[in-house]
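User: quick one, fold this
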Amino acid sequence: DGQQLSLFACFHAFFRDWGISRKVSYLYRALPGTALLVVGLLAENAGASAMLTVNSHYESLLAAAREKDDRDSEELCLRALAGLQSGKLQYRMRLAEFLWQHRSREAGWAEILRLADDGQTGFADAHLWIVRNALSAEPYQQLTAEQMIDRLNRAIRSAPDTAEAHGLLAQLYPAIGEKLLGEQHLIRAAEADLTYVDALAARLAAEGRLQPGDSRVQRRCEMLLTQLNTAPRNNELRIQLAVLLMLTGRSNNSGRSG
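Assistant:
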């Protein structure tokens, strides 16, 4: 059973790491999670409802470990969840990010690369993580624009409506002279997430192509008004709305002058 092997693997990995540190306190802190790991192994033969119960226990234990900054129990819970949900790559991604932040960057990076190379297209979140890291002030591994574009396109093949991937492609394509492709992806990003309408409206308005009755801008303005009703003192929302209204007004003026 593949799931059972994954659970035994995460159990073995923890005690292998403990064997290096030999800190007895780690074992005491990990006892609750170890007990649940054993329950998880037994629950695999008890049906889906039992597995859901075990998962919820691990999530509760994970939240408690994070509240106490108990990194060892947190890691054990993440490893167990990744084993119990071996078919859901987001659980492995959570573990990979934990390793990156709290253990070693090498271990986290290696796991994220494995996720990005999983199957034909890889895991979309892993591709996005790698590109975000490459664009950061201190990238772990530098990538060319073409390499980042390749990863983002693989992310889109895995999850076509990922707004962030389209938004990043909208920034990267013009950098290699593909302005039209960049705009196409910005449109896709705005369709998936209205917050990208701000950038799309600014680009269209700069070229005099923003239509007065653009439905995307109207929906975005309605969204901002709704958000302002619940947070009337949020100046950032107010500025975003004012900019969109200004751009629409500028477009109207351009249309009348033409």
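User: anything notable?
Assistant: The first helix runs from residue 2 to 21.
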